């Protein structure tokens, strides 16, 4: 089967959706499918190459508006490629335009609502609704997202739930873990992710300031400006010696940080955080997770009282109480972490995600 994946970006551009598209594409290619990814290259020069068995067509970027890259070449390729099925990833309104010029059946993975770009959302609403109505199947990543998204209410009969999946984490370097432990003696709360507006990391710092002990380790890319704000906030609160904004770290350091941490925190504050794939990474590392209740998939991945704790968003007092309960009770934290690891292995396996998606393709192309 020739499968075309359609989205705005692709690694090495970093992001949850970008990483998911790569894992899914390479997983499908490993199962014998011909997989092409059509995306917009980061620069004005396009590229056409193969990586890990996947054909990558990066079209030239004309301009970027509201975090949406535009490229007439995307429409040109979409009209001329002849895949058996197209798998588009939402939100990307320009990708909806590309679907208008295609003839192949297509499915949509609905990753999240358009939250912050409200003007863009209103302008593109008719186009998005048209795409959802035409899609042969709409994939949602969790039951709460499917139930609460205002965009998905009219399409429940065609929604399939396929959670994200990840491969096992490689083992960390013990020497690096030991070196980091000397730097961060703990107890340590770890955050990993790009520092977007909806991540709520400022509330993690405020929670640490409410505790007599404990460190916050904040790792993620794109931290130059936002990281400066967080450092200044920590200084104002008098906890600059217990808040460590690391910026982007390599994979070896990231694995060591997972091994070093006592708890993982995802303090997001908006529905833009529709799943929180990084929670699965933390679970695979055996960490208990504290996340926020957003009405999306965050509390589907982390089950309150079973694999971690779920607190209200933008509530540093509640977050501080949850941190204290795990810092002060290592045996409970360990039990939650082990339960989370078991859930990640059974419910969020990469192979399971690929197989479920492949089954959707078969159902759609058999009609």
UniProtKB/TrEMBL annotation:
It comes from the Bacteria. GO terms for molecular function: glycosyltransferase activity. Keywords: Transferase. Residues 15-165 form the Glycosyltransferase subfamily 4-like N-terminal domain. The keyword Transferase applies. The keyword Transferase applies. This is Glycosyl transferase group 1.
């Amino acid at each position: 089967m020739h499968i075309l994946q359609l989205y705005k970006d692709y690694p090495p551009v970093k992001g949850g959706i970008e990483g998911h598209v790569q894992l899914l594409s390479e997983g499908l290619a490993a199962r014998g499918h011909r997989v092409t990814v059509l995306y917009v290259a980061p620069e004005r020069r396009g590229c056409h190459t193969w990586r890990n068995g996947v054909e990558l067509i990066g079209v030239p970027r004309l301009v970027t508006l509201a975090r949406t890259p535009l490229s007439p070449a995307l429409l040109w390729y979409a009209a001329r490629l002849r895949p058996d099925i197209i798998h588009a990833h939402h939100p990307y309104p320009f990708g909806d335009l590309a679907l208008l010029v295609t003839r192949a059946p297509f499915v949509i993975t609905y990753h999240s609502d358009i939250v912050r770009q409200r003007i863009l959302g209103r302008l593109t609403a008719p186009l998005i609704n048209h795409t959802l109505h035409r899609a042969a199947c709409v994939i949602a990543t969790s039951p709460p997202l499917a139930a609460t998204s205002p965009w998905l209410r009219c399409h429940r009969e065609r929604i399939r739930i396929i959670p994200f999946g990840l491969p096992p984490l490689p083992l960390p370097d013990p020497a690096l873990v030991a070196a980091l432990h000397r730097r961060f003696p703990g107890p340590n709360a770890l955050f990993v992710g790009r520092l977007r507006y909806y991540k709520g990391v400022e509330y993690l710092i405020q929670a640490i300031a409410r505790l007599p002990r404990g460190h916050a380790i904040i790792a993620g890319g794109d931290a130059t400006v936002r990281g400066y704000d967080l450092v200044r906030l920590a200084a104002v609160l008098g906890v600059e010696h217990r808040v460590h904004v690391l910026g982007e770290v390599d994979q070896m350091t990231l694995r060591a940080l997972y091994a070093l941490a006592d708890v993982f925190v995802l303090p997001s504050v908006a529905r833009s955080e529709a799943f929180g794939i990084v929670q699965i990474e933390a679970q695979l590392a055996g960490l208990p997770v504290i996340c926020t209740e957003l009405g999306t998939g965050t509390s589907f991945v982390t089950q309150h009282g079973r694999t971690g704790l779920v607190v209200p968003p933008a509530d540093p007092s509640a977050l501080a109480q949850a941190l204290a309960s795990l810092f002060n009770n290592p045996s409970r934290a360990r039990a939650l972490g082990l339960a989370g690891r078991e859930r990640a292995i059974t419910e969020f396996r990469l192979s399971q995600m690929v197989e479920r998606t492949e089954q959707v393709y078969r159902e759609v192309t058999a009609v």
